[in-house]
Amino acid sequence: MALALFQRAGTPVPPSGAPGSDGLDGPASDAALIEGSLADPDGFAGLFDRHADEIHRYAARRLDDASTADDVTAETFLVAFRKRARYDLSRADARPWLYGIASNLISGHRRAETRRLKALARSFRHAPEQAAGFEERSAERVTADRLRPALAAALARLSSAERDLLLLVAWAELTYEEAAEALGIPVGTVRSRLSRTRTKIRRFLDSLEPHA
């Protein structure tokens, strides 16, 4: 499926295992693949093969629409291909860069994502067990395969910047440093924004607890 996505977007993809995809000491780093693709554009397929499925899963989770996720994934790698000459080759792992591109593209579907969250939230009925123990789990562990209505309601209340950051950490499992790179913000901003986001979600879920 991954190769078909990129081909649909109009970029030629060579067979997997094309020359130059592996180094003598093991697989080439993402940075090496990108650098090599400057002279041999077909080599960029190695980066696609390595990360497309992961980016697609993230987009599908955010948008809950496989077709739109297909488009976002294909466009992510098209944008990356076009901008590869500006990639910082000192960064061996290109995942944060790719997630940053994907997040920007997902922002074009923000209304659809928000509508989905609100629709899930409307199905919410007072269920304190969903909030119980949330403080121990922390907001970063919003990783159920399907958003529970209570958490959907909480996410719908976040700003787009807060939601992007939270889900890059929770679903894409980026470190704070990687999330900062993906979003183009300082690590300190990541820490403070996540702290505020955790507080917002915790307060909302705490409000669902029955009070004596």
Automatic annotation (TrEMBL):
UniProt KW keywords: DNA-directed RNA polymerase, Sigma factor, Transcription, Transcription regulation
GO cellular component: DNA-directed RNA polymerase complex
Keyword Transcription belongs to the record: yes
Signal sequence residues: none
Domain RNA polymerase sigma-70 region as annotated: residue spans: 47-115
Family from the record: Belongs to the sigma-70 factor family. ECF subfamily.
Name of protein: DNA-directed RNA polymerase sigma-70 factor
Originating organism: Planomonospora sphaerica
